[in-house]
């Protein structure tokens, strides 16, 4: 079956510091026209930092869209042209002060592919060394460590609700299972 | 530590059929001002439909932001005022023709809480009855069944990259493990 939508027109709506918004016109597989609202985002990298006692470094920060403090794995936006592993190392160091001797790539995901062009990449970081955090001047967050098993239980009780955090922790659990 | 950001101003940028965009001014915990780009979305429901042989009903559809066909679990946007379980039953029936005698709620997640106010809710559907799909006139997709174990392997090889699909399948696997 032909599933492809062909772009016929693009109306630029907004170019912000982080996102870009357009309203596009597409031709559907049946030849009819439809509108697609599109948000483009530079993407980001998130990291499950696991110490030798199976504790994960977690951050709590205020998330403006939801007006609440959210428990997440450390993460950040890709700088223009930045390599994803460099972003991972940078964000982990900035938010937690950690450096890692071992990084395994756990894959990437589309946050909401119906309207949003944003990839988030996830790493598992191990063999950690603790240093001092260097937050951006407009970044306010708290760091704590929580056992991986406890975090998986919290996910299954719906107490962890950030997408990249749920994916990172469940993939890390499965990745470690498959190593054993 | 005080982590709260207080809204000082809101500039409405765009109100589309699906998303709403604004640029807000906030007061940070240290008293300085900052800008927050905000996308609001009605949210949606996704469903892991598992038959008695442990196969999952999957859909393939063109995702405009990524210009590619993506393998996903069935899902759809919430209609205004629609109850999430009603949306789950409706979308499952529309996209696959299935009805389910048993629904378990697997929780919800924020797709990208840095800028986007969108929740996606996920159900596990079992005891399925096969009927006829009723797609929206602008919806084009293909349905196929794939064993849950195969899908988990595909996730770990980074071959499934839709966020709600990764979360739904990994949570379903963990949910079923905990039932046994």
Low-confidence stretches of chain A: none
Order of strands in the sheet with most strands of chain A: 1-2-3-9
Count the E strands of chain A: 11
Q: Could you tell me the strand content of chain A as a percent range?
A: over 45%
List the helices and strands of chain A in order.
Answer: EEEEEEEHEEEEHH
Q: Summarize model confidence as the mean pLDDT of chain A.
A: 97
Structure classification of chain A: alpha+beta
Oligomer: homodimer
Q: How many DSSP helices of chain A?
A: 3
Defining key terms:
46% strand, alpha+beta, 11 strands, four-stranded mixed beta sheet, 22% helix, 180 residues, 3 helices, homodimer
Would you write up a description of this structure?
Two copies of one chain form a homodimer. Chain A has 180 residues and is an alpha+beta fold. Chain A is 22% helix and 46% strand. Chain A contains three helices and eleven strands; from the N terminus they run E-E-E-E-E-E-E-H-E-E-E-E-H-H. Chain A has helices spanning 84-96, 148-156, 163-179; strands spanning 6-15, 20-27, 33-40, 44-49, 55-63, 68-72, 75-77, 98-110, 116-117, 119-130, 141-147. In chain A, the strands form three sheets. In chain A, strands 1-2-3-9 form a four-stranded mixed sheet, with no helix packed on it. Chain A has a four-stranded mixed sheet with strand order 7-4-10-8, sandwiched between helices. In chain A, a hairpin with a 4-residue loop joins strand 1 (6-15) and strand 2. In chain A, helix 2 crosses helix 3. The longest helix of chain A is centred in the C-terminal third of the chain and has 17 residues, at 163-179. The radius of gyration of chain A is 19 Å and the shape is globular. Chain A starts with 5 loop residues before the first strand and ends with a helix. The mean pLDDT of chain A is 97. Chains A and B meet through strand 2, strand 3, strand 5, strand 6 and strand 8 of A and strand 2, strand 3, strand 5, strand 6 and strand 8 of B.
């Amino acid at each position: 079956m032909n599933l492809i939508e062909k772009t016929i027109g693009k109306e630029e709506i907004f170019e912000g510091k982080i996102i870009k918004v357009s309203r596009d016109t597409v031709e559907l597989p049946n030849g009819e026209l439809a509108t697609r609202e599109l948000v483009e985002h530079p993407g980001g990298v998130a990291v499950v930092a696991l110490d030798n006692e199976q504790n994960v470094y977690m951050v709590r920060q205020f998330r403006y869209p939801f007006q609440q403090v959210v428990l997440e794995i450390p993460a950040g936006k890709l700088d223009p042209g930045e390599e994803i592993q460099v972003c991972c190392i940078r964000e982990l160091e900035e938010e937690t002060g950690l450096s890692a001797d071992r990084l395994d790539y756990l894959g990437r995901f589309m946050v909401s592919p119906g309207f949003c062009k944003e990839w988030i990449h996830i790493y598992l970081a191990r063999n950690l060394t603790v240093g001092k955090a260097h937050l951006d001047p407009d970044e306010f967050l708290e760091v704590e460590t929580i056992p991986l098993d406890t975090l998986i239980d919290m996910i299954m009780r719906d107490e962890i609700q950030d997408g990249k955090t749920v994916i990172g922790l469940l993939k890390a659990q499965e990745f470690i299972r498959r190593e054993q």
